[in-house]
Specification:
Layout (H helix, E strand, L loop, with lengths): L1 H22 L1 E15 L1 H8 L3 E11 L4 E15 L4 E16 L3 H4 L3 E25 L2 E28 L2 E14 L10 E2 L3 E2 L4 E23 L17 H16 L1
Antiparallel strand pairs: 1-2, 1-10, 2-3, 3-4, 4-5, 5-6, 6-7, 7-10, 8-9
């Protein structure tokens, strides 16, 4: 019986402490959304360079006010040629990862996002060399490399921002830094361009993406935010370790002693 009474008292004290802490904090209503986006720079690049066609879209779901999971997917058609050979590469890719919003909930309110994403990329592509010519001691020889299907892997870090422009519509951009894990292909035949990654002759590449995003709210949560306590201003006229009233009394006593 005494143990039960002690547990009851402890639980009561804990609940009172918890309620006092919650009471000393502010709460806001934060909307969680499903974001569906389309990458706009790919069609713009294709307009000026017909040898590079890249289409990409993405979907992300907010888990809370700080984190969301995202999936991007795209298609690439790449062509390259010079005087002695031509190269074709086309395929699809996906990226899966987590995005972190670095803004405070009371600042973002679900409308603004500024943070960083960590993603893993997987690429499936078909590459071929339709024509390849070479001039040597015996003359000119011609050959070709047939179509081969390969898989590529890479990881990506992409900081960026996003902001609402209208209701259910926002724009944003990301700068991507990608690290190639495996490009696919054989030891002597490597792809020139990897869907979703870029120039496969390099281990690290950078990219820029511009997104148009439609937002679909699906849930609202309550987020607790702590109050900011105002800083106490120190009296510049008062010197620490001294008492103004004592100093004044000392001055009066000194004046009286001088008059005498």
């Amino acid at each position: 019986m005494s143990k039960t009474f002690a547990y009851t008292i402890s639980l009561t004290v804990f609940l009172n402490f918890f309620l006092c802490q919650v009471h000393a904090q502010d709460t806001i209503t934060y909307p969680l959304r499903i974001n569906v986006g389309f990458e706009a720079s790919g069609p713009a690049i294709y307009y000026s360079n017909k040898n590079l066609q890249n289409l990409e879209g993405y979907v992300s779901v907010d888990l809370n006010e700080k984190r969301s999971v995202g999936l991007s997917f795209g298609y690439l058609n790449y062509k390259y040629s010079q005087y002695n050979y031509s190269y074709l590469n086309k395929g699809s890719y996906i990226r899966l990862g987590v995005d972190f919003n670095l803004l405070k909930p009371e600042k973002s309110m679900g409308k603004y996002w500024a943070g960083i994403g960590l993603k893993y990329g997987l690429s499936r592509y078909n590459s071929e060399t339709p024509g390849l010519s070479q001039i040597n001691y015996w003359g000119e020889t011609s050959s070709s490399i047939p179509v081969r299907t390969n898989w590529g892997h890479f990881v990506e870090v992409d900081p960026g921002v996003r902001a609402d422009m209208f209701k259910h519509f926002s724009i944003g951009w990301t700068m991507s830094l990608r690290l190639l894990v495996h490009a696919g292909g054989s030891k002597n035949i490597k792809p020139i361009y990897l869907p979703g990654f870029g120039n496969a002759t390099k281990t690290v590449t950078a990219g820029f993406s511009y997104f148009l995003v439609w937002n679909i709210p699906y849930k609202k949560i309550t987020v607790v935010t702590k109050k900011e306590e105002p800083e106490e201003e120190e009296d510049e006229d008062e010197i620490p370790g001294t008492n103004n009233s004592d100093s004044g009394n000392t001055g009066i006593r000194q004046q009286g002693a001088t008059r005498q």
